[in-house]
Amino acid sequence: MPSITEDVSIGNLGSLQTLPDSFTWNFTAADSLLPPSSATVKESIPVINLSDPDVTTLLGNACKTWGAFQIANHGISQSLLDDVESLSKTFFDMPSERKLEAASSHKGVSGYGEPRISPFFEKKMWSEGLTIADGSYRNQFLTIWPRDYTKYCGIIEEYKGEMENLASRLLSCILGSLGVTVDDIEWAQKTEKSGSKMSRGVIRLNHYPVCPEPERAMGLAAHTDSCLLTILHQSNMGGLQVFKEESGWVTVEPIPGVLVVNIGDLFHILSNGKFPSVVHRARVNQTKSRISIAYLWGGPAGDVKISPISKIVGPVGPYLYRPVTWSEYLRIKFEVFDKALDAIRVVNPTN
Ligand SMILES: O=C(O)CCC(=O)C(=O)O
Ligand SMILES: [Fe+2]
């Protein structure tokens, strides 16, 4: 059989019958789907009802233990989740050439393409995505959906608005578990005064097509999200896994209507290392494709410095991370990837 060359378009992965070399990963035992045999209990991240009277404690514990949790009773309507999922399906079902009309430009974040973390890995990932970071998506929607343009833009705007509100609500609750409020974040006050938004959200639509050899492929390789927190809706198909030191890779089974929340690097910095930013990845499947919709709630614009919240660190310190602007942190992340937090860590923290 002729070997499939490296000239594979990510827009057509679902039609391939064989796994090309460039997409074949060499997994070690520790990378495998199953947790190490020492883990006897099948555990996963907690599901937290946001109406629970103990919600602050529950969120705080989940953030400390896992850096991730699931939320029920979050107030986002099922119909909005269904709408954004079906918009994603409609997009990814289009022929590759049409999807490429929305391709991200060389420099830009917005648009269609392979995962942004791809350059850090030798092998390619079995997924494609559409990133909606700014208003430029409207022009792309107009090109690919001239008839349904208004409807689809409306869904995205509504989703962004709802996610932003939910993210701020979660931030307040989680900070409450550390005994502080949003007003204790030095840069949040500054950005409010200067009139700009505290942080900006990016929507990433991910598609993981069916895969002929899922056990040798990777949908999205292990990473932490750079942002403050991520709210993820996954379609009714498992694939997301989070890493926990004692347990290995733990699958987060989808529960209809329940959303996943990840703590990102920025929250790890704010909490002065109290909350881990969760390492996670997505595996793929042989029979069913999978969609996930990530809302990545980012950092402050401009020259605002991010550093651990002084009230959390306390008067004697030590501060574990030096101050960085959001754009500087992103630049570091896209240079050294999983070493980015180490790169801004204070070597001999005193106070
Ligand atoms: O598809 C998933 O479950 C994970 C997506 C993700 O981690 C991301 O978009 O950053
Ligand atoms: Fe992620």
Automatic annotation (TrEMBL):
A GO molecular function assigned to this protein is: metal ion binding
Identify which cofactors the protein needs according to its UniProt entry.
Answer: L-ascorbate
| Top EC class of this enzyme | oxidoreductase
* Gene3D superfamilies membership: B-lactam Antibiotic, Isopenicillin N Synthase, Chain
Keyword check for Hydrolase: no
Q: In which pathway does it act?
A: Plant hormone biosynthesis; gibberellin biosynthesis; Hormone biosynthesis
- Enumerate the InterPro entries for this protein: DIOX_N, IPNS-like_FE2OG_OXY, IPNS-like_sf, Iron_ascorbate_oxido_reductase, Oxoglu/Fe-dep_dioxygenase_dom
Write the Enzyme Commission number(s) for this entry.
Answer: 1.14.11.15
The record's listing under Pfam families reads:
2OG-FeII_Oxy, DIOX_N
Kindly state a single biological-process term from the GO annotations of this entry: gibberellin biosynthetic process
- The record places domain Fe2OG dioxygenase at 198-299
Q: What UniProt keywords are attached to this protein's entry? A: Dioxygenase, Iron, Metal-binding, Oxidoreductase
SUPFAM superfamilies cross-referenced by the UniProt entry: Clavaminate synthase-like (SSF51197)
- PANTHER family (alphabetical): 2-OXOGLUTARATE (2OG) AND FE(II)-DEPENDENT OXYGENASE SUPERFAMILY PROTEIN-RELATED
Q: Which family does it belong to?
A: Belongs to the iron/ascorbate-dependent oxidoreductase family. GA3OX subfamily.
Give the protein name, as stated in the record: gibberellin 3beta-dioxygenase
